[in-house]
Each structure stands twice: as C-alpha cells, then as structure tokens.
Amino acid sequence: MATLNDWLEGARVRTLPAAVAPVLIGTGAAYQVGSGSIPRTLLAGGVALAFQIGVNFANDYSDGIRGTDDVRTGPPRLTGGGMVSPGIVKVAAFASFGLGCLLGLVLIALSGAWWLLAAGVAAVIAAWFYTGGDKPYGYMGLGEVFVFIFFGLMATLGTTWTQAGQLPASSWLGAVGVGFIACALLMINNIRDIPTDSLVGKHTLAVRMGDRAARLAFVTMLIIPMLLACIMAIEAPWALLSLLLLPVIALQAKRVLGGAKGRDLILVLRGTGLIELGYGITLLIGLAI
Fold first, then answer.
1. CB count, 10 Å around CB of 168?
2. Are 66 and 200 in contact (CB under 8 A)?
3. Phi and psi angles of residue 71, each rounded to the nearest 5 degrees, phi first
4. CA–CA separation, 211 vs 162, rounded Å?
5. Residues 240-258 pLDDT 10s
6. Containing H/E element for 238?
7. CA-CA distance, 129 to 135, in Å (whole number)?
8. For 37-81, how does the pLDDT look when each residue is reduced to its tens digit (9 = 90+)?
9. CA distances (Å), origin 213, targets 144, 218, 220, 270, 276
10. Which of 37, 171, 180, 284 could make an S-S bridge to 28, C-beta 3.0–4.6 Å?
C-alpha cells in the first residue's frame, strides 16, 4: 500500500519548479508592459503544475510497465516498485491532465486566446508519448526537445500572451533561459540513470552523449540563462538579480564536473530545481520593477 510520501515521490516534487518558473517569468514580462494579472497567473500556474504532475505519473506508469524502473539508483517508483497498480497510476496521470485542461479552458476563456487550445492538446499528446506508446521519443534522446518547447517556450510565452496579448523580447529571452534550465533538470536526472538506462535500451540524450559530454552539457544549460538575463538587463536592469544564482550554479557545476554519481546527484537535482525556481522569482521581480 502506497503512503502519501510515496505518492509525493511519484509526483516528483523536485521537478515542480520546472512548472512554476516559466509562469513567473511570463508574468514578469506581462507586468513589464503594464498588463500583469494575478488571477491569470494563478490559473497558468495551476495548468503548469497539473501538466507537470501528469507527465511524472505518465512516466512512472510507462517506465514501470516496460520494466525500465526495475533497477534504479533513485527513489523507487509507484509502478516499478510495485506499490500501486499500473492502472491506478495511469488514472492519476490522466486526472492530472484533465485538471490542467479544465484550468486551461478557464484561462483561455478569460483571455480570448482560443488558439491555445491546439497548444494544450499538443502538450497532452507530447506528455503521454514521452515514455508511452510503441516508440516513446524519450527513449530516443528527444526528451530535452519536449521539455524545452513545452516547459520553456510554451509555458512562458503562453502565460505572457494570456495576460498581455503580446510577446515582448523579455518573454522570449526568459522562455529560452528557463527552457535550458528545465533541460538541465532532465539531463542531471538522466546522467544519474545512465548505467541502468543503457541496460534497458532507454537511449536518453545523456546516454547518447556519454557521461562526460552530458555533464558539460548540463553546466552549459545553466550558464546560458545567466547570459540571457544580462541581455534582458539592457531594457530591464533589475533582471541582473538572476546573477545572484551564480554561486549556487557554481556549486552544482563543481559537484557534477567532479564526478558525482548515483544518489549524490539527487542533491544536484534538488539544487537545479531551486535554481530554476530562483530564476523565475528573480526575473519576475526584475521585469516587473
């Protein structure tokens, strides 16, 4: 019988900053042009969180029934660990997607951006086939593409558009920046799982690149957002608040480039999640001032 803590592990709470951060940045860009809205921010945040949790449960289900999670270095999964029947985990995934779609409909109705319905449908399809279906693209090394598009570009730009009806340069730059950090979050998770993923035929980008190159890519994914914040500072000087994250980034880079493995990388996973959340908060403040 799964406990509440088991379900929280299944929802992968450490990954939830990947959902919240782009909404904060998109809102900051909306306030920059004088059109921010707290109610719409909360709705966008609800959509993003529901979809992130749905992706995590869907991943738990699909990897579990494939046997990918039979051997893990991280916390045991609901399906793979035999704590919950696969059918229940699948229901939890689609219940989360359903909640996200409901909140999204409310947000779309308020903003009049009905074209976002297509984006929502695409997000659900992409979320399921990340590890689901006969040929999951997450097993082909394309997971970072999904994360960058949906948890970087779409989440940030969609948030800005539903509040401001326009997309200033700061929204685009912030979307790219937070997209790279979201990719770093996935990359470090997959670096940890390289030994086991290789055995079960899960060819993530980390597996394809190899351990050393994947670690260098992780660090690069954290540096690029800082450079983009400097570009944003041309029009919004307070965007430089994001540079306060540099010591935390340096710490994670030292751990990763120093060869941390297995459970030691869970600390890096947590640190990267905090970096993404911090990026969202500092840009919200920096762009809104």
1. 19
2. yes
3. -125, 115
4. 40
5. 999 999 999 999 999 999 9
6. none
7. 8
8. 999 999 999 999 999 999 989 988 887 887 766 555 556 678 877
9. 15, 9, 11, 21, 22
10. 284
pTM of the model: 0.92
| Six-digit token string for 118 | 């297509």
Q: What is the DSSP string of 70-131?
A: SS-SSSPPTTTTTSS-HHHHHHHHHHHHHHHHHHHHHHHHHHT-TTHHHHHHHHHHHHHTTT
Gap between the Cα atoms of 282 and 3, Å rounded: 35
Flag whether pLDDT at 10 surpasses 80: no
Paired tokens of 99: 């909640």
Question: What kind and span of H or E run contains 163?
Answer: helix 155-164
Angle between helix 116-128 and helix 86-111 axes, rounded to 10 deg: 170
Query: Taking the CB of residue 11, how many other CB atoms lie within 10 A of it?
Result: 20
CA distance 157 to 115: 13
